[in-house]
Automatic annotation (TrEMBL):
<dbReference type="InterPro" id="IPR029039">
    <property type="entry name" value="Flavoprotein-like_sf"/>
</dbReference>
<feature type="domain" description="Flavodoxin-like">
    <location>
        <begin position="3"/>
        <end position="168"/>
    </location>
</feature>
<protein>
    <submittedName>
        <fullName>Flavodoxin</fullName>
    </submittedName>
</protein>
<dbReference type="InterPro" id="IPR008254">
    <property type="entry name" value="Flavodoxin/NO_synth"/>
</dbReference>
Length: 172
């Protein structure tokens, strides 16, 4: 099973979730299932033709996926430099689809305190997947941070790993 996990992260939380999801997928498919986890700034310009599952995730910024302006806001709030150029919004809009339509799952991180607010980068990413014909959306999930820079709320990495395992085994 060929799997690509693409993450955007400014404070490291979505990256940690992506790595846990990747580990969960490996739990599900076994160590020989090619699971690649990559930062969106280094993600491929075209989806591989043998791709079975694409997972895309990043932080919720201003109720949706990040934009250049919100990424600069993150930087001014102490985020790691080097992640301003491209977010998952821009990557999803630009990446070339593959010949086969992979399953696609999207995730986001967002703040526990405002979890009742409607905005979710995962849902926005799901809409972008459909708009750009990148594959079949099979699931979206949110994982929670305690505050903007983190940390992740207790248990979220375990939940992310379990979600990855479910994604890998859902077609069995
Ligand atoms: C500019 C900016 C806007 C944000 N807007 C929201 C928001 O609308 N809803 C929310 O729950 N969290 C919001 N957050 C908090 C982010 O979701 C949080 O920083 C992110 O989940 C951390 O993940 P990361 O370490 O992968 O960047 C915002 C953060 C920044 C920097």
């Amino acid at each position: 099973m060929s799997v690509l996990v693409v993450h955007e992260s400014h404070f490291g939380n979505s990256r940690a979730v992506a790595e846990a999801v990747g580990a969960g997928i490996t739990d599900g498919v076994g160590a020989d299932g090619g699971v690649v986890v990559v930062d969106v700034t280094e993600a491929p310009d075209a989806l591989p033709d043998d791709l079975d599952l694409l997972v895309v995730g990043g932080p919720t910024h201003a109720f949706s996926m990040s934009r250049a302006a919100t990424r600069h806001d993150a930087l001014s709030q102490g985020a790691e430099p080097g992640h301003e150029a491209r977010g998952i919004r821009e990557w999803l809009a630009a990446v070339a689809p593959s010949g086969v339509r992979p399953d696609v799952a999207t995730f986001d991180t967002r703040v526990t305190k405002v979890r009742r607010l409607p905005g979710s980068a995962a849902r926005a990413a799901g809409r972008s997947v459909a708009k750009h014909h990148l594959g079949t959306l099979v699931d979206s999930a949110s994982f929670f941070v305690e505050d903007s820079p983190g940390p992740l709320a207790p248990g979220e990495l375990d939940r992310a790993r379990a979600w990855g395992r479910r994604l890998a085994t859902r077609r069995e």
